[in-house]
Please model this.
Amino acid sequence: MKLTFLGTGTSTGVPTLTCKCRVCTSSDPRDRRTRPSVLLEFDGRAVVIDTAPDFREQALRAGLSRLDAVVFTHAHADHVMGLDDVRVFYFKQQVPIPIYADAQCMASIQRIFKYIFDQTYPYGGIAKLDPHVIDGPFELWGAVLTPVPVLHGNLPVLGFRFGRAAYVTDFSTIPETTLPLLEGLDLLILDALRHKPHPTHSNLEQSLALVSRLRPRRAFFTHIAHELPHSETNAQLPEHVQLAYDGLSVEVPGF
Ligand SMILES: [Zn+2]
Ligand SMILES: [Zn+2]
Model:
């Protein structure tokens, strides 16, 4: 399985509109961060976790020629607003695209994209989606995804474990009961917004402390705001812990 970071930015994206800070005006392409999403490719299949508002541009950049499923972490705008654009994959593949979310997230998606689920628009041109509510580990073409419950402020959000990897974005607290799901990993991807504490996001120092506790072989940080310059921040991090960047691909061990 190959994992590609489609987007590694916080909800506003980096550059942030109207901002002239050194990260927002940086010429390093790794300082340009679209909204958070990852692509999993395995066995000829392509699955995305979240459809960011930048999904179309991300899919173009990744050369995505098919899409087999979408898995959602939660229904905040930076994670769902690209969902309409999956219709082109439906037109091509002619099979409703399965989407996976917990009950609360699915209800929000069905409200936000009511026109897709109503299917009453008489002229076509909209996606057909096949909703699946996540209530435990589920299998996608041989890959088992285990939900990893975390808290984003007071909102329950899902991370996912697959093989010996886990993707956990948008959290401020990982409950003690969830931590065992993140032990023994080769690859751990965590939210790390900035240095300053934030009420709904883990910061760099908190995520580093989690890495020290969970001891994955490698860790990448995502959902990064414009406070963290890519190369300068990475130079200060331990070698096995790095900020991810848009377009970065890594092998997922355990498949
Ligand atoms: Zn987010
Ligand atoms: Zn800025």
Summary: The chain has seven helices and 14 strands. Residues 16, 19, 21, 23-24, 226 surround zinc ion (ligand 2) (CB under 6 Å).
